[in-house]
Amino acid sequence: MMSIRVTDLFIYPVKSLRGIRLERAQLDIRGLEDDRRWMIIDDKNKFVTQRRLPAMALIQTQLTESHLILKSSQGECAIARQYAGTGTPFSATIWNDEVQVLDEGDAVSAWLSDALDGLHANEPNLAKQKKWRLVRLANQPRPMSKPQYLGAQTHTVFADMAPLLIANQASLDALNSALVAKGETPVPMNRFRPNLVITGLAAFAEHRLAGLAGQGYQIRFGYPCERCVMPSIDQMTAAKHPTMEPYITLRDINSMPAYGKGEYAKPANPKAAAFGENAYLAHAQSSLLLVGDTFQVLHDES
């Protein structure tokens, strides 16, 4: 059987802010520990990402034993990992889900608003006069997202849909070869914000697998990740590519394949780009993942 190796592990403590590379991470049905445990909302209690505010990529995150630290050109802001506020839960929207959240307070909101306003100084209509707030999930779990593809027991916190995003290094290499052939600049893996990066598969072969088998657990693949315009945002500068690369090239070489079965079958979509697999933990309550871990591939038994 083919052996697959983990080359990188990433978490993104605050949705759409800069991530953290790890050597090890605990995995459960909600994904990697500390991944997307906070998100930013607007004055209508709706989630905000780089799709709307590209400069969110420039705010760094750090985790200590006791605090989440946010860093930008405006300085630092510390948030206790154990909720220290006095607020009551309220409803916020992430995609089609209504979630109960807790606000991290006015001081954090003021810091975020100043930071994002400063980072978007050349785009005043995006951030000016906005009051951005940082929230965490309250005690009530988020409603299930796509259990027909992601398993009946999975949950996410503030990831878009799936607990995990698995990316294949060979797929990025193929994309970069196609970009260079067009005279474009290669892009790093951080454009796609994966949780796990793996090697050992051919380019885009991940879309033809059922998942990966580790020691005493499985990571099941739910469906290919349909990409939006976010990969066109440079994660180090927040600049958008003027012609939406690498999205256009990715769509040309790896459009969304068909997935699902029976009433949940989805046809291929040649107008959309795919990169990576939305995935979840199966056959275990939790597992420790390490850079260098190896997997065996799982194929669909049907």
Automatic annotation (TrEMBL):
Instruction: List, for all copies, the residue spans of the domain called MOSC.
Output: 138-298
A Pfam family (short name) is: MOSC_N
The family database entries (InterPro entries) matched by this protein are listed as: MoCF_Sase_C, MOCOS_middle, Pyrv_Knase-like_insert_dom_sf
Query: Per its UniProt entry, which superkingdom is the organism in?
Result: Bacteria
Please give the name of this protein: MOSC domain-containing protein
Q: Which organism is it from?
A: Simiduia curdlanivorans
